């Protein structure tokens, strides 16, 4: 089989794997700009229910680029038939079935010392070559990796708002995850990640290890938001208040849940959310070592 035949066979294999007509995939891949939308929106602040601001009071903006039409369906199939088949470690909670911001916070319950930080511009920082190289590292051919990358990135980066972006971001960060997990296991530190929110905790003070820990992240090309990096106990972790013996929703969520009950509302999303948090308090925090 020559290189041209191999390229064609890999394209046909990719289309067969996602169950989509090859001619249609080729047509859409040549017309990506008409299969995306783009707008800016204010970044929500999970802690106070408002919007995030810079120190000078300027609102923080993020660019949303959701896919549409048939490209969105192709991406759904890529996620369901390819991406979901790649197992992620239990420390990764964002965008993973049966895991949530609640399961992300729970393992840190009872740990006196907690470090929280997040990654700056996580999705835009993941460039198309990083996606391509990630799939090569999983053993996909260069042609197969090309088609996944072409159909899941736009404007040379990972767009925020598509069915595939969160899972691909998880996969790109996976090498860094494993290095962090290895370091944390050696030092009795619990680690979880919810998309771009990273949390570390331990029953023992690990302040002397923070620089080394964060260096694992930055050395791999990711940027830390040092302004939002906090080392203290009983923090709010991915929207959940974490204490020594239990976890709970922030005050504003509890108030909204109480309003739903008082007003006898038929649909009670805050009450359901609060119940999902509090029912974990009958369980012990899960061990978080590999």
Count, helices: 11
Strand elements, count = 9
Structural class: alpha+beta
Overall spatial form: globular
For the biggest sheet, the summary is: 4 strands, antiparallel
What is the spatial order of strands in the main beta sheet? 4-5-3-6
List keywords for this structure.
globular, 290 residues, 4-stranded antiparallel β-sheet, alpha+beta
What do these coordinates show?
- This protein has eleven helices and nine strands.
- The chain has helices spanning 3-18, 22-29, 69-81, 101-105, 122-125, 128-137, 142-152, 165-186, 210-218, 251-262, 269-278; strands at 39-42, 61-64, 113-118, 190-194, 197-202, 230-232, 236-237, 240-242, 247-248.
- The strands form three sheets. A four-stranded antiparallel beta sheet has the order 4-5-3-6.
- Strand 4 (190-194) and strand 5 (197-202) form a beta hairpin.
- The termini are far apart.
Summarize the structure.
The protein is of the alpha+beta class and 290 residues long. It has eleven helices and nine strands. The strands form three sheets. Strands 4-5-3-6 form a four-stranded antiparallel β-sheet. It has a three-stranded antiparallel β-sheet with strand order 7-8-9.
What's the topology here?
Elements (H helix, E strand, L loop, with lengths): L2 H16 L3 H8 L9 E4 L18 E4 L4 H13 L19 H5 L7 E6 L3 H4 L2 H10 L4 H11 L12 H22 L3 E5 L2 E6 L7 H9 L11 E3 L3 E2 L2 E3 L4 E2 L2 H12 L6 H10 L12
Antiparallel strand pairs: 1-2, 3-5, 3-6, 4-5, 7-8, 8-9
Helix pairs in contact: 1-7, 6-7, 10-11
């Amino acid at each position: 089989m020559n290189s041209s035949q191999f390229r064609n066979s890999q394209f046909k294999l990719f289309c067969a794997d996602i169950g989509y007509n090859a001619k249609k995939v080729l047509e859409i891949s040549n017309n990506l700009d008409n299969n995306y939308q783009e707008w800016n929106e204010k970044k929500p602040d999970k802690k106070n229910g408002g919007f995030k601001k810079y120190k000078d009071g300027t609102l923080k903006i993020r660019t949303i680029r959701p896919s549409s039409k048939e490209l969105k369906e192709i991406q759904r199939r890529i996620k369901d038939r390819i991406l979901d088949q790649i197992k992620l470690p239990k420390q990764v909670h964002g965008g993973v079935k049966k895991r949530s911001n609640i399961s992300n916070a729970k393992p840190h319950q009872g740990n006196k010392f907690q470090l929280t930080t997040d990654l700056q511009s996580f999705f835009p920082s993941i460039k198309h070559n990083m996606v391509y190289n990630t799939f090569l590292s999983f053993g996909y051919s260069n042609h197969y990796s090309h088609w996944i990358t072409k159909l899941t990135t736009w404007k040379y980066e990972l767009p925020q708002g598509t069915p595939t972006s969160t899972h691909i971001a998880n996969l790109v960060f996976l090498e860094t995850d494993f290095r962090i997990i290895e370091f944390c296991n050696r030092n009795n530190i619990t680690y979880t990640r919810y998309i771009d929110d990273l949390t570390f905790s331990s029953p023992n003070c690990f302040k002397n290890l923070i620089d080394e820990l964060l260096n694992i992240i930055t050395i791999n090309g990711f940027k830390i938001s040092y302004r939002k990096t906090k080392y203290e106990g009983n923090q709010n972790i991915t929207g959940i208040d974490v204490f020594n013996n239990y976890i709970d929703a922030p005050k504003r969520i509890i108030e909204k849940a109480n309003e739903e009950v008082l007003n006898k509302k038929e649909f009670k999303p805050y009450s359901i959310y609060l119940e999902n948090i509090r029912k974990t308090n009958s369980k012990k925090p899960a061990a978080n070592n590999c």
